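Why this split exists: single-chain examples teach little about how molecules sit against one another. For that reason, every record in the complexes split bundles all components of an assembly together and asks for one structure covering all of them. Below is a record exactly as it appears in the raw files.
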Amino acid sequence: MSPGGATQRPDTAWRRLLRRRLALFGLVIIMLAVFGAVFAPWIAPWAPQEQHFDGLTLEGSPLPPGGAFLFGTDLLGRDLFSRMLFGARTSLVIGVLANGIALGIGTLVGVSAGFFRGRIGGALMRLTDLMMAFPALLLAICLAAIFTPSLWIVVLVIALVNWVQAARVIYTETTALSEREFIQAERTLGAGPGRILFRHILPHLVPTVIVWGTLGISTTVLLEATLSFLGIGVQPPTPSWGNIIFENQTYFQTAPWLVFIPGAAIVALALAFNLVGDALRDVLDPTQRGRD
Amino acid sequence: MTADTTSAGATVPVLSVQGLTVSVRSGGSERALVEGLSFDLARGETLAIAGESGSGKSLTSLAVMGLLPPPSLRASAGRIMFGGQDLLHLPEGAMRRIRGRRIAMIFQEPMTSLNPVMTVGAQLTEAISAHESLPRGEARARALAALQSVRIAQAERRLSQYPHELSGGMRQRVMIAMALALKPDVLICDEPTTALDVTVQREVLDLLRDLQRETGTALILITHDMGVVAEMASRVIVMREGRMVEEGPAQRIFAAPVAQYTRDLLAAVPRMGDGSGAAVLPVAESVVRLTDLRVRFDIRGGLMQRVTHRVHAVEHVSLQINQGETFALVGESGCGKSTIARAIVGLVPHEGRIEVAGQPLQDLTAEGRRALCRDVQMVFQDPMAALDPRMRAGDLVAEPLVIHNIGSDAERRGRTAGLFERVGLPPDAMARYPHEFSGGQRQRICIARALALRPKLIICDESVSALDVSVQARVLALLEELKRDLGIAYLFISHDMAVVENIADRVGVMYLGQIVETGSRAQVFGNPLHPYTRRLMEAVPIPDPGYVRAPLPRLSGEIPSPVWPAGEAPQRLRLVDMGGGHLVAQSNPTAEIAA
């Protein structure tokens, strides 16, 4: 950092984040995915459901990438590029929203159980244990069977399945934190539980939440794919990156791009979130200051 | 054992360090943490390497052992000659044969250096058979002999126990037994007694000295405690910031130190006297009064989670602290002194009566408790742990004002700046984070924080124990100054008798949750009447190599447990006034202390 802070603009977390090359790279990928999803109707050359007569070879097999169809076509002669763009909408909504809700529930349960302990804390943690012991997929199937499948139901189902691990991790972290001496020091100053919770415990949980959140992106996107495969996810013909993989996985030998392209997209998105998450965690930690 | 290198006589050093430089690599640059250190170690000699934190004394020992953590740290120059070989250029395989067998090491924290899932016996036999192929029975016999040589009671039984079943002192004995089992030429002790209580420290130091006399092992003692240095060392090296400041025989270093730093270091060491010079305080109104305070923790067990045992942490303690006075509680770990502090600030539930400024604690509502926090503040032992690492120093000091809704933003800022000045911190420190300060400065932040609410009483729970002596002296001076200027009372909790004697007006000595002796400083230190008080005082290392200690029986006793089955309680001690408020426990709970 250069001296002479008076003339310098304030060194905000955002500024420090932008100085990191890897984080910037991650941000660009995320922006691309968001851009593609939002402007899909204008960018996509065709409608995602449209089956092209010239989209299949004479033998009826899909076309490889290149030519008229940028990413090639799928088994029904649909344009993969268009499907990927529209699929980004579903996958991003699920990756961000479902994961966000899961993290929200997990944090709420974990923090309250870890901070207040006692009967309520015990009951909450036994509930998470129960949820953990229950096969996640079975639960998802049950939930999906009760409600008519739609994107929002899928988001809800995934959130309800995925909050459990987050709650466990955050509970452990919170109990460890509330035993720390500076929390006891706060108590001797007369700080109430609200202040301790919001000013001293939650800020320390930020790294855990960020790491857990970014790791969760890929698992949620894949869980959606699994649900789609079982016919209880996002309903065809609406594309999502997950269900594109699952629709086509049996043709991996003859048409590998149908699996490879959406697979690469999921990996790239998960990686991008991980990079940004890691950088965000460091940037928000004052003890890491000056190590950019 | 190959003894060819040492058989030539005392003139040939066992170990010779020449121009040792240890550097750390960070980024692209290298920085020397130890620079150009040279010394020789003769057979049977005790060499003390003394210095404060960051002086490079521990790095030196790690370099000798070949244990510098790669890749950031490495010995970049110099030679370490041992048995005709340069240890710095020895391959790892050859080094491993030397390590443990010919050069052994004992670390500060015996719990972390022992494997918690292996029995003591298994670890000892493993250490022995790693270097010598012996039949198992014989290795076990050697292990037993090693334990007996460190004077562990019931050695046979200890072999099948796990580290957590032993006390701290016993664990350190096991470490010593392990280190000496192979009769090494050199034993390196890195702060071997720092984590131990003073009476246990005495036992371990005695043991080390006796064993050294028997085996002729050369000892390198790394310590920050000049008292320990004076007791143990024949020669001393004083280090500061990676460089040797002074070297010489212990007698000369203590009698006529040449370097200014050595002189400052010795001047900063708190010394024990006879308790004289205590000013008689005018009778003032009491700030805190404890009456028959008891703190017990339940241990539940069994299927029904019924209370089967109780830890009797504090038993029937009554004391009073007056305005503007320093009351010191001394005792060893587990005696309940910190629990009293926690009970006063409401961190642990208690029985009995605690009055703060005339207000009984148990009658208070939540609102009243908050108000009470303004009167009683606490400064913890480890300032790094007691400060939220994610907050700026200024916000940390202003926080008590925010919690209690005192003043506007601008007023708070002004008051915080005033507090920083008061404790001797620069105003620009307010924008920095705790990790950007040194240990002593951090403790100043904690003190500023405690002062923010203008309390009547500050509880210092081992507040200077983690600091280097020179820093410790300055923080103690600050506390003294604040007391004089602001009329604050202190409850000063410490295990360090010498510090207590230098700061306390009145003293209470605690043993197993009860006060065994209390009175003014002059009464307790000038005329200690209870055998435990005397034992505590005699155990303190004296920073004077010429001091002749009265011969004491070698002790290896264990402090009895404060855990009692439900329904039973320890015998209550009766305090008898020996004149002028000097109270001494009469009936003795353990005949063993009197011995």
